[in-house]
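Researcher: Here's the sequence for the chain we discussed earlier.
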Amino acid sequence: MTKRTQATMFNPPEALRRRIRDGFRQGKEMRRCTKCLMPETQEPIDFDEHGVCNTCRSAKHRDTVIDWVEAERQFRKILERHRGKYRYDAIVPFSGGKDSTWTAYVLVRRYGLKILLTTFDSNFRRPLHLQNIEKVVRKLGVDHVTFKASEEVVRKTMVEMLKRKGDFCWFCHTGVVAFPFKTAVQYGVPLLIWGEPGSEYSGGYYGYQTKNPADERWFNRQINLSTNAEDMLGYVPGLDPRDLEPFRFPSRTELDALGAESIHLGDFIRWDAPKQFEIIRKELDWEPADVENLHPRYNYEKVECFLQGTRDYVRFIKRGQGRTLQRANLEIRTGDLTRAEAAEMIHYDGQRPQSLDIVLDYMGISEEEFNRIAETHSIYPYVHDWSQTRRAQLELDDQNEWRKRLDMAPKKEKP
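Model: Thanks. This is the structure I predict for it:
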């Protein structure tokens, strides 16, 4: 259980307060931040008296208040408490994407740490992504461990969580976080260093003022969709409790005995994804890739997973926003894009991805059922207009390979 030292005041998000005021009437215009394009369907969001969202306010704190020289000095102190005392100086959760690659690069090349990379294999990793991982591990000369959960169990949880939460990626959310902590316990390495802080995307749960504590409270509050492994055992018939071991967070007893300390590099070193991408591209030969429903400007973003296009499509059906908007908002806050320029780009969001047919076949559900389920999870006041849905023109270069690959996986029959 999460240990609380003080009561937390419940502050209903603006969307909920507005919904109560409006008496659940349909047809209300969706409110957006007056500085960026963030809609009120983002969780958790609030607006100040000028209509500026909390994420923009957090970014202002980042740019005007934080002493990054002092923050980096504090980071060095943390490293020196751990350097040379354990089998590894730090565990680095490593998806192989741009952010975890940058984290590994900085820790090895700038700080000279002996690190262990830990990867949770989602079962849907794209070929170019696997090549990127191979290059990073070889060029940095680091140790690397990977864990892959049963694909049959993964598929069952995908269908269940799509229905219950409108998010079929529960298995990945939980596995990606639980596995590095389990590895830390197994190897006796207290320090875990993550990459980009959640403060870049959300000013609600955590911000630069409070930092993003990568711990059990974070896992339960922001990662596992309010569903733990024991819940899943009750949801999906026929599972053995051991089937869900990959998705369990270690016990507080284990982590306290280890003295676990889990931090985000981006809380100590100013994050700049476009610049960092150029460095890892040059130094490690890390390659970008096409991603469905994403503006080509951001071809370094979320290149890892074949499910990404469908996941972002569900997000748009629920919230009226996608990944292009998310990335463009970051650049509005850094001054690299104007609000008007960003608005011209977000038409990439909301397209029906070509890979959807493969994903639906894999999960064993029809598109009609998929649409109905996604729509039931929509966030007020957004109402998806199906007549405006366009079929994406982009077909991933590895799509046919995935069709063959997923045909081999266990599937249930469509109803």
